[in-house]
Design brief:
Layout: H1 19-39, H2 52-58, H3 61-88, H4 90-112, H5 118-142, H6 150-173, H7 182-206, H8 216-220, H9 224-249, H10 254-262, H11 265-275, H12 285-307
Helix pairs in contact: 1-7, 1-9, 3-4, 3-6, 3-7, 4-5, 4-6, 4-10, 5-12, 7-9, 9-10
Amino acid sequence: MLCWGSWANTQKIDKRWRFELFYWDYTWGLLICALLFGLTVGNKNPTSPDSFFQNIHNASLRSLLDAFLGGAIFNLGNLLLVAAISVAGMAVAFPIGAGLALVIGAIINYIISPKGNPILLFGGIAMICIAIVLDAMAYRGLSVGAKATTKGVGLSLACGVAVGLFYPFVAKALIGSNHLGPYTVYFVFAMGAVVSNFPMNYGLMRRPVSGQPLRMNDYFKGQISLHVWGILGGAIWGIGTVANFVASYVPMIGPATSFSLGEGNTMISAIWGIFVWKEFHGAGKRVKCLLAIMFLFFVLGLSCIALAPVVH
């Protein structure tokens, strides 16, 4: 949750560097992180059937395809989220995208692997959805007159569906005969994100939802420091994802709880926005009140989800 809510800070370092260009380095960061974890903690005993190379070699084709598709679907959802923010702003994109993803992902993951107290789990999810709506209301309070265009709402809905659907593929890859482990599943997942990024991101560069079309030459004109920030952003998201997949692999926790807790990243990004980037500087009492209630619902919702695996 911390990493998923923090990686976007690296994209804010230089606002002149378009997100489409940043995103190439971001996906390389995902893959580098996957290799580092896979070749270290995922390969402590190379002769073990659970080791990185042995696990990939012995994995079923179904598990490999599920993990790869999960990465490709995630990549599509993440790109749609960015496109939605550029058109409609965070006040529209985040509540629709994150809220829909949380509901879809949690329900499907629970069907695949029904772990945890359903009342606490889905009660906590409902509270987080309320918190996301309150967060959107606070942002809209800052940007008076902002309009949610049909394109922006459509992109946000598509983003929510894609992000909600990627995790069940990962959950399926972690179970069954000849399944993948958490480190190998993340490596194949990252490969899916990198490979799918070539047609998806290049298409977005040539036909952007906002701004002028870009060429690959624009990417190579960037300073080394800009590329480093992109790789770092991908690595931060990757660390959080490895932690999330490991938690999902633990029998007591399961994918529904792990995914739902991770989706509390909206609260983390709000904390960065409020206290570091000063996005709410000069906000009125109504906006500050909405933010306070938002944090309360986030804490209550995350607490319920965290207790779901241990309270029967």
